[in-house]
Amino acid sequence: MTRLGILLSGRGSNFLAIADAIDRGQIDNAGISIVISNRAEAPGLAAARARGLATAVIEARGRKRAEQDAEIIACLREHGAELICLAGYMRLLSPEFVVAYPQAILNIHPSLLPAFPGLDAQRQALQYGVGITGCTVHFVDDQLDHGVIVLQRPVPVLDGDDEAALSARILEQEHIAYPEAIARVLSGNYTIADRRYVARASHNASLLEEIK
């Protein structure tokens, strides 16, 4: 079984989507070994405890990023985490963290990267006037919202959308995309060529069968 480590800072809705996907068998042969937050009051921690999962609080306030990340890495290793999933974790990872888990950290971002990286991606999309935005699951590297893209799902921008309405529709797609991306990564049925995630032929064939 592959053990997942979850990092979150807030309500943890993507964490819950992942946990639910594991429970229903959508993510095969995987389990959540630890849920870590940099905020003791994060609702996602309470949700994890309610599910009987191990949790930890590793505060960021007043600490250098590398120092905090070293403690997080130690906690993840203690719990045997093999794939790290950022689920609304509102803190940049240090280069040391990325090196510790090469191509084993996933993040989800509420835009079709490389468009609108960073904070307030939905507001950026509305201000720019795009007709389509969405969400992206990607590997984390040492640059912001930059790593290899695993999966994207588009979301139309509707007339009259405000930031709240657009964010809610994107979040619905995030809850679908993240478990699917994790399942793809855990299958091992892919290669990375330059910046491109490439599914192997057998995986492409299975996807075509699903479409039919």
Give an overview of the whole structure.
By secondary structure, this protein is of the alpha/beta class. It folds into two domains: 101 residues, 3-Layer(aba) Sandwich (Rossmann fold); 106 residues, Rossmann fold. Helices cover 39% and strands 24% of the residues. The chain has seven helices and nine strands. The chain has a seven-stranded mixed β-sheet, with helices on both faces. Helix 1 crosses helix 6. The longest helix is centred in the last third of the chain and has 25 residues. It is globular. The two termini are 31 Å apart.
Key words describing this protein structure:
212 residues, alpha/beta, Rossmann fold, two-stranded antiparallel sheet, 7 helices, 24% strand
What's the pLDDT, averaged over the residues? 93
The fraction of residues assigned to DSSP E strands is 15-25%
Task: Provide the CATH topology of the largest domain.
Answer: Rossmann fold
In whole angstroms, the N-to-C terminal distance is: 31 Å
How do you describe this structure in short?
The chain is α/β, with parallel strands linked by helices. It has two domains: 1-101, Rossmann fold (3-Layer(aba) Sandwich); 107-212, Formyl transferase, N-terminal domain (Rossmann fold, 3-Layer(aba) Sandwich), CATH 3.40.50.170. It has helices spanning 13-23, 43-50, 65-78, 95-100, 121-128, 163-187, 201-211, and strands at residues 2-8, 30-37, 55-57, 83-86, 105-109, 132-139, 149-156, 190-193, 196-199.
Please describe the topology of this protein:
Elements: E1 2-8, H1 13-23, E2 30-37, H2 43-50, E3 55-57, H3 65-78, E4 83-86, H4 95-100, E5 105-109, H5 121-128, E6 132-139, E7 149-156, H6 163-187, E8 190-193, E9 196-199, H7 201-211
Helix pairs in contact: 1-6
